[in-house]
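Quick question, first post here. What does this chain look like in 3D?
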Amino acid sequence: MPTFAAYDGTELAYHEHGDGAASQPLVCVPGGPMHDSRYLGDLGGLAVLRPLIMFDPRGTGASGVPSDLSSYRCDRLVDDLEALREHLGLDRFDLLAHSAGTNLALLYAARYPQRIDRLVLVTPSAAALGLMVTAATRLSIAELRSGEPWFAAAFAALQAIVAGGGDDWEAIAPFAYGRWDAAAQAHRAADERHRNDEAAAVFAADGAFDPESTRAALAGLRAPALLVAGEVDLNSPPAMVEEMASALPVADVVVQAGAAHFPWLDDAAAFTATVDRFLSTAVQGASDSSVQVAAGR
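> Answer (accepted):
Ran it through. Tokens below.
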């Protein structure tokens, strides 16, 4: 397992999947916030199509714990991602991030726009841009799942949570997956074991985000971006993802049909085809703004 030194000497780790000589590697940042990269797997088989560099943020997975815990703040993690680029010897690179990790990707792109070739944001969080999702929107998306056998109990728990009087997060877990089958349940069961809660509490601390400055910096980003939304994702509803895309000069949004927060699990073929097509053609063919729907089961 390769490691490298961060700016403060913390030893950071990453995992390699796929054939490193096949094409330019895709650096992948996990969400959580502050999960290690294990839950990403090989992104539904994407590693067959191109090499993946799976980054474990400081304090997670195989990476070391820093002496300064305030370095878990998202804006300070940008320096770790830059150290990884330097370690890999890449002048420019393709960057994929999932969920809360997309905030780190956006801050990196704002600070180092010249280093990004292509940017892939999967079911993104938009705290770095100051975007919020209303309770009404989450409930409306949830109601699309009303035919599921687990819906009644999960929806009641969701109503209590958005009203501020509930905390049964396990009860709403099925909403995070397009299919609440054995694979999804196993993925969920492993989820909390890969998150550093202490680090997560610092990730979005005061000062982490400055949406106005980030938007202004991103206006100069020339790299094309792909934003993948799940049709039934409560965390990152398609409408919010489309609004997020408007902050990026060159961006396409793909809404994966039937998918929730982990689209590579919900339909691996649809997800990998979408991402690979973008990575293969985006520099030549991206448009200023478009929304597409990817087929799903």
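Residues 268-285 form the longest helix (18 residues).
The beta strands are 3-5, 11-17, 26-29, 52-56, 93-98, 116-122, 225-230, 251-256, 289-294.
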